[in-house]
């Protein structure tokens, strides 16, 4: 998969950028702004869930055939500490790839500290 920069769809509208994507891994760069905060003033959990889902889906696409479409069938996000305004990155990698199911893992870092971890299972829809 080529590095095309902007992420598409909902994640792209949030401002997510694919910084790298190759060989079963992907990295997304993101700038947390006031628009991404919850009432407590920290990064909204739904935004973080979108970012990890997008990074892992991108990683899966680099490890599948062009006619295979990954569909998230299970997503577990662990919030380790609150996110805040400023840059963060999400790094995702394929852990296990099967014929019909693929398992990925993602780490979210901000200011050199882990703020989230995620694991997801993707069903591969064959075109």
UniProtKB/TrEMBL annotation:
The entry's keywords: Hydrolase
Positions of the Thioesterase domain: 41-112
Pfam assignment, any one: 4HBT
Homology family: Belongs to the thioesterase PaaI family.
Organism: Blastococcus aurantiacus
PANTHER family: ACYL-COENZYME A THIOESTERASE 13, THIOESTERASE SUPERFAMILY MEMBER-RELATED
A single MF term (Gene Ontology): fatty acyl-CoA hydrolase activity
Alphabetized NCBIfam families for the sequence: unchar_dom_1
InterPro entries: ACOT13, HotDog_dom_sf, PAAI_dom, Thioestr_dom
Protein name as catalogued: Thioesterase superfamily protein
């Amino acid at each position: 998969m080529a590095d095309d920069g902007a992420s598409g769809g909902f994640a792209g509208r949030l401002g997510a950028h694919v910084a790298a994507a190759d060989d079963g891994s992907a990295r997304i760069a993101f700038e947390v702004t006031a628009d991404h905060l919850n009432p407590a003033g920290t990064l909204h959990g739904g935004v973080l869930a979108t970012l990890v889902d997008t990074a892992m889906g991108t990683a899966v696409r680099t490890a599948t055939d062009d006619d295979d479409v990954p569909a998230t069938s299970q997503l577990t996000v662990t919030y380790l500490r609150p996110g805040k305004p400023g840059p963060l990155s999400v790094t995702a990698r394929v852990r296990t790839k099967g014929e019909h199911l693929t398992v990925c893992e993602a780490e979210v870092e901000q200011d050199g500290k882990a703020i989230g971890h995620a694991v997801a299972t993707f069903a591969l829809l064959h075109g």
